Backbone:
């Protein structure tokens, strides 16, 4: 009769050794985690990358302050790089800058009715919307037509004689 020293009994002991079984379980678990992490980390990173991008500095140098006489309105075009989904693209923007004695205001060119591009008529000192006849005065306030509110503004900063416009809109008022 075997007393536990034959090859069969030794192999059986090895297979049922709790330390070895535990070690194998942890090893398999660690390998599975490594494989799943290797698969899902890049996928999650790719999907979430637009959310992690910090907002860029959106202040754009658009014109010299002295290029706009007090009381005048100027249409100014500028380009800015913006993140659009997963790519960075260059977009062209337009603002109307009105210079007051104490400040400069930047009006967005989108009509507040349905977003058509407004035109500034210097001889009338008015903004006209070609779509449904909306009219705004030179301060951006509604004169007539369907627009429900005044023109939307962009924030403006003046530094060292240069006018900087934030390409993002301020909250509609
Ligand atoms: S979009 Fe300007 S009046 Fe309708």
Residues:
């Amino acid at each position: 009769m075997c007393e536990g020293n034959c090859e069969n009994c030794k192999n059986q002991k090895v297979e049922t050794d709790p330390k070895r079984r535990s070690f194998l379980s942890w090893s398999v678990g660690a390998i599975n985690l490594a494989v799943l992490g290797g698969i899902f980390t890049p996928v999650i990173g790719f999907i979430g990358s637009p959310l992690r991008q910090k907002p860029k500095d959106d202040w754009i140098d658009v014109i010299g302050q002295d290029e706009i006489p007090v009381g005048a309105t100027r249409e100014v075009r500028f380009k800015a790089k913006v993140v659009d989904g997963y790519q960075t693209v260059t977009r062209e923007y337009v603002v109307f800058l009105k210079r007051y004695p104490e400040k400069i205001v930047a009006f967005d060119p989108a009509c507040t009715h349905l977003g058509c591009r407004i035109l500034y008529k210097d001889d009338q000192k008015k903004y006209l919307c070609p779509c449904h006849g909306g009219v705004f005065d030179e301060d951006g306030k509604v004169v007539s037509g369907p627009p429900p509110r005044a023109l939307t503004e962009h924030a403006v900063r003046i530094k060292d004689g240069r006018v900087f416009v934030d390409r993002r809109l301020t909250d509609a008022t």
Remarks:
- The pocket of FE2/S2 (inorganic) cluster is lined by residues 111, 113-114, 116, 129, 131-132, 134, 145-147 (CB under 6 Å).
